[in-house]
Specification:
The structure holds two protein chains of two kinds. Helices cover about 25% and strands about 15% of the residues of chain A. Chain A is α+β, with helices and mostly antiparallel strands. Chain A has two domains: about 140 residues, Ubiquitin-like (UB roll); about 80 residues, Alpha-Beta Plaits (2-Layer Sandwich), CATH 3.30.70.20. Chain A starts with a strand and ends with a helix. Chain B is α/β, with parallel strands linked by helices. The two termini of chain B are about 40 Å apart. Chain B has 26 helices and 14 strands. Classes of the chains: A alpha+beta, B alpha/beta. Chains A and B meet through strand 4, helix 2 and strand 8 of A and helix 4, helix 19, helix 20 and helix 21 of B. The complex binds flavin mononucleotide, iron/sulfur cluster (2 copies) and FE2/S2 (inorganic) cluster (FES). Flavin mononucleotide (FMN) binds next to strand 9 and helix 22 of chain B.
Chain lengths: ~240, ~625
Amino acid sequence: MTSSFFLDGKEIPFKEGQTVLQAAMGAGQYIPHLCWRPELEPHSSCRLCIVIISGKPFSSCTQPAMEGQKVECNTPKLNAMRRAVTQLLFVEGNHYCPSCEESGNCKLQATAYHVGMQDSHFPHQFPIRERDSSHPRVNLDRDRCIRCETCVRASRELDGKNVFAIHGRGIKSRLAVNSPTSLLKDSGISPDDMAVKLCPTGALTVKRVGFEWPIGQRIYDKESLATIELREYANQEAVHG
Amino acid sequence: MYSATATPVPDFLDLIPPERRSDPHALLQILIQIQHAYHHVPQEAAKRLAAEMGIPLVRVQGLLSFYSFLSPQPQGEYVIHFSDNITDQMFGNRELVALMCQRLDVNLGETRKDGRVSVHFTSCTGMCDQGPAALVNYLPVTNLDRERIERIADLVNAQIPLKDWPAEFFVVKSQIRRSDVVFRKPIEPGAGIRASLERGGAFLPEWAEDLAPSDARRHHLERGGAETLKEIYHSDLRGRGGAGFKTGIKWESVRDAKAGDHYVLCNADEGEPGTFKDRVLLTDYADMVFEGMTICGHVVGSKIGILYLRQEYWYMKEHLENVLNSRREAALLGKGILGTDLDFDIELQFGAGAYICGMETAMIKSIEGRRGIPRRRWPLPVHQGYLRCPTVVNNVETFAAATVISAKGGAWFAHNGTGQSTGTKLFCVSGDCERPGIYEYPWGVSVHEVLRDCGALDAQGVQVGGPSGTMINTQEFDRSACFEDLVGTGTLMIFGPQRDMFEVVKNFALFFQHESCGLCTPCRLGTTLLANYVRKFEQGCGSPVDLEELRNISGLMKTMAHCGLGQTANHHITESIEKFPAIWANRMKTTEFVPAFDLDRALEEARGLTGRNDSEAHLAPVEA
Ligand SMILES: Cc1cc2nc3c(=O)[nH]c(=O)nc-3n(C[C@H](O)[C@H](O)[C@H](O)COP(=O)(O)O)c2cc1C
Ligand code: SF4
Ligand code: SF4
Ligand code: FES
């Protein structure tokens, strides 16, 4: 038996145990998200996927869907807040999109377009962060890291490796590498790791392939983020149910 | 990262039993032991622990970089942490820190070259009614003044061991100024748990019912728990840790949960600046707190309780262990409590300096030996808490109240207070008043009445419930403290007419920036942006646009942040704008907009590099 809830008035069917975000994506309704990945445990940290249920905010990536619930998602107020959260992610790091090899393939950038971000609005923080280019095939540019812990989870849950962790607290927290020297070259990372593949930004990239596709022919140049994400989700569901 | 002169870890780890040394859940507690022994955690220790526990080194380092009281770098033989709550600041802690650093010839935040001493600031240490305060080698020193600072500096310079320091330095007073029905006559140890057992007929002779003896015993125990739960419901007790969740509902959920062992956790993190009631309860009424946990164990069917005590209260360890031991001797704890089949015991665990660890799921992770990052909202701790087992988390004062309710009945308890806030409450009063300390009132007392009783007739403002609570001005002193109105932890920090409320705002903004765990975007960035805007105003460079921006960021945090810290870390901003508008207006330039970028300040680095500070190296004229 399937149940259903209402997303901005639209009826969304769901299966027992699904979250609001899963059910919405399954029904072809895109909700912006950066830290959530269908194949990983949800993390509830980027806060883009917030929806309002009975007047209260909840992250839809962790909120269980419930029968008959009325969920507000695509409202001007929430969209403005999602835009602001995205802007925060940009001013927190050092994102020089025009010179970044990930430009056009970057989910952070694509999300910025999706939420209608025109400028960074908030004062840039210009943090000083260490780059790790020690590994022959994988580059870690912490300037572009949004602390979503996708790599942390993917390395643990999918690669079975635990290459990454977060160190520090608050604004000073940083992505750390699990190796005797704290450098990638002495870690168990490989360019085929899901941790590298799933990083939504240019923080973790495979070396020597950055400009294989010219600008204009990259992932989000051709199709919108929402279209791609919904298709990927549907494929994933078809495979794993 | 580690100094070459780091003390080797001789056989210290060998002293820890191997089964504990290899248990990752004990990681934080062992790191605290090492920190106390060596005043840092040497890398060899971190490596060896990681190896023995079978966890990545990066995880051990993750804890060292998260908890304020753990450090990978060597600290002085004497480590001094000055409490930096606004009340400490009001009574001169800045001048005292400067004096201390000067006398000791050490820079704030650094270790002296000879390794003798290091001086730091830390968040409120819970001694606000007897501040300014500090911790010396993790022990509290109160009532600091110039004379005391000079004597401490001399003792450090003369390398006198702490045990030979004057005992009066370390005196922590309870200062209970007013007690009401609950704490006027404390419950005798055992009376609450006895009442709970009696409700089920636990002390009836076994033949009193038509059951086999062992079944009868279990049946009595079971029924007692159910009946006591009813009393908790009748009392309408709500949590004293801030959120005010109904205790009966929480206990029933855990009682009904089928899966796994059940746990009872007592939250004694007491990190909300200005709050010190749990310290007083655990000093003077520890029996009532432990008894409340035991009663909870009876109700929810748990055998293990853990008291999570903030690092700042380390000095209470021995006292609390003594109380636990005397309870064991009196058969009030341990196996077969009061001769029944009830088994319950309590252990102590310590935090290591992180306000967020008072948030219940962060506390659970900390007790599991991890970084104290709040978990995602579901599943709730009552279903999957500590070690993924059904878990009750309650505040110290909530457990003390449960003891009273069990002993005297729910109806008796509910007789006091207001419609939605039953019973009495401990209020922590500090700041500009004649009689700071603990005051017990029935819920619903007005701020005005508290101010009168503590001798604060000329207050211009009060912070109710700590920095995450509510800031009120004179027009609101008739508001009352209860869940219907001014909720919170029962904390009142009082600000006299001579105070600059902007300093209050700044202190809170820096506190939240320091304590944000960093998990979620709106709080990680929001607390920093708020603090930066406050600094901009401090320099007299604010503009109306910035005020608008402060409100926007606050609104964003309120809706979008993951946990209570980020959701409330903006109250002091929006409320001070509303209630003390002059402190902001005074710091504005008349223009509509002033860029955050300050060209002269941006040249600071260049001045540092070139060693110049003459007027030619500045854009604006400087005073010689
Ligand atoms: C940032 C933050 C800090 C908290 N600190 C404490 C604390 O120090 N002590 C406490 O009892 N509750 C604290 N709480 C509330 C706990 O999460 C939890 O609600 C409480 O311990 C439940 O106990 P109660 O129902 O008895 O109040 C804090 C909450 C947040 C969000
Ligand atoms: S490196 Fe990438 S995946 Fe990892 S936390 Fe940073 S942005 Fe997220
Ligand atoms: S609101 Fe702040 S403290 Fe809470 S999870 Fe987010 S970053 Fe951490
Ligand atoms: S996708 Fe839900 S919080 Fe990031």
